[in-house]
């Protein structure tokens, strides 16, 4: 379970108040005759030990807060220009040259588009297939950083959700083609172990999660608009 730093701080403050109140109550309710040196020392030890635990919680909250800020900062340090604008220009030029529309996750490339792109006669490194691969490689690296916790996922979703979905689902037919090609090459070379299906797997896992999330948000917004529309009638 992922506990936010604010929750940890709230727990620490609540425990501090409880410790102080209980400590004062113990001293106030204990008869003076029973407040021997040993009893006082034990009470103080218990209070200090409890306050030490509270201080550990505050340290933990600070570490969690620092970790959250680091993940947010990591996006701007490493992926602020995602996708790389040079690669985007190369991609648009290749698509325009092949007369293939820019794909989105809702209007992905089809098999005809795939054959058109694969038949591109432009020399390397401007060949459509190479340009697409370079473009997707940036998103694969980005998705890997998200999956390993280097970048905050919720923050990244807000900034790069649509473009990441467009990258994976828009070019999914190309990714599938590459996977099939690798499988065929492996079979020709007599490799017994099958090629992993985790081709651009980091991007695929992020895109699958974000697609579900985006659809859920769209459904939620549609229901909210419907409620507002019904309320406006009355």
How is this structure best described in words?
With 234 residues, the protein is mainly alpha-helical. It has helices at 5-29, 37-78, 85-97, 111-118, 128-147, 153-170, 172-188, 201-233. The chain has 2 domains: 5-78; 85-233, no CATH class. It contains 8 helices and no strands. The longest helix has 42 residues, at 37-78. It is elongated and about 100 Å long.
Largest sheet: none
Share in helix: over 70%
The total beta strand count reads: 0
For the record, the count of structural domains works out to 2
Strand content range: under 5%
Strand-pairing-aware structural class? mainly alpha
Rounded mean pLDDT is 87
Q: List the secondary-structure elements in sequence, H or E.
A: HHHHHHHH
- Poorly predicted ranges (pLDDT <50, ≥5 residues)? none
The Cα radius of gyration reads 29 Å
Q: Termini, distance in Å?
A: 44 Å
User: Which outline best applies?
Assistant: elongated
Number of helices: 8
């Amino acid at each position: 379970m992922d506990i936010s730093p604010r929750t940890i701080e709230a727990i620490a403050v609540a425990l501090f108040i409880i410790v102080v109140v209980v400590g004062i109550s113990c001293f106030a309710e204990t008869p003076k005759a029973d407040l021997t040196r040993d009893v006082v020392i034990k009470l103080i030890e218990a209070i200090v030990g409890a306050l030490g635990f509270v201080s550990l919680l505050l340290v933990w909250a600070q570490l969690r807060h620092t970790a959250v800020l680091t993940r947010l900062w990591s996006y701007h340090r490493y992926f602020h220009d995602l996708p790389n604008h040079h690669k985007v220009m190369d991609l648009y030029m290749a698509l325009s040259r092949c007369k293939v529309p820019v794909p989105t996750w809702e209007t992905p490339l089809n098999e005809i588009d795939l054959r058109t792109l694969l038949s591109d006669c432009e020399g390397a490194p401007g060949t459509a297939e190479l340009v697409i691969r370079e473009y997707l490689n940036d998103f694969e690296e980005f998705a890997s950083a998200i999956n390993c916790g280097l970048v905050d996922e919720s923050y990244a979703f807000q900034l790069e959700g649509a473009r990441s979905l467009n990258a994976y689902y828009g070019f999914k037919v190309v990714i599938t083609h590459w996977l099939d090609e690798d499988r065929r090459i492996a079979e020709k070379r007599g490799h017994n172990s099958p090629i992993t299906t985790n081709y651009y797997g980091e991007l695929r896992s992020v895109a699958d999660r974000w697609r579900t999330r985006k659809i859920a948000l769209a459904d939620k917004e549609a229901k909210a608009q419907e409620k507002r529309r019904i309320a406006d009638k009355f």
